[in-house]
Amino acid sequence: MNVTFNRDVLTGKWKEIRGRAKQTWGKLTDDELDRISGRFDELTGLLQQRYGYSKEQAENEVTHFIEQMNPR
Question: What's the domain range around 33?
Answer without folding.
Answer: 3-69
